[in-house]
Structures are given as C-alpha cells and as structure tokens.
# Entry
Amino acid sequence: MRAASKDESRNVPSQRRPKQFRMPEHVAQLIDRVAKMQGRSQTDVVIDAATRYAEDELLDQTKMVWDEAGYDAFSKAVEGPAKPSEYVVKARQRKRSWE
# Structure
C-alpha cells in the first residue's frame, strides 16, 4: 500500500494547471512572509486564499427561496430577542469585581 501524497491527503486534485500573474512587490513579500510563517509554499497560501475568497463570493450571491412558513420561521428567529445561553446567564449572575 502506498502513502497518500500531500495533494491526495488534502483532497486536492494532483493535476494542477499552471497560472502566472503579476503582483506588486509588497503583495509578493506579504505572501512570502505568510508562507514562511506557516511553513507552507507560496502556491498553497495563494490557492487557499483565492479559494476562500471565491467560496465567500459564491455564498454571498446565493439566493434563498422560502415557502411562507419557512420565511415566517426565519423572520421570527432573526427579529425576535435572542435566547441567552447558559454561560451568559451565569456570567450576569456573578458579582462584579467593582461591586
């Protein structure tokens, strides 16, 4: 049995298409700094950042379609008062240090 390659272990296709682009020197230095700090390649840093950005953009453009009951439930949840968590309730019951 062979060991999984780095690409396979991250569920990234091992077939990569080369991309070349120009960037300002300060951006290249920033990417270099992050890559060294994380012990990763510059390519991995750029791919991760670009992927995250692309996914966020797609999610921002996602249209939600609701039936009337679903929309009413969503509106009630968003517009109604938030339920305090157990942690918040306990924190509010503690004596404050300035008291």
Summary: Confidence is low (pLDDT under 50) at residues 1-9. Residues 22-78 form one domain. Residues 24 and 74 are 45 Å apart (CA to CA). The first helix runs from residue 6 to 9.
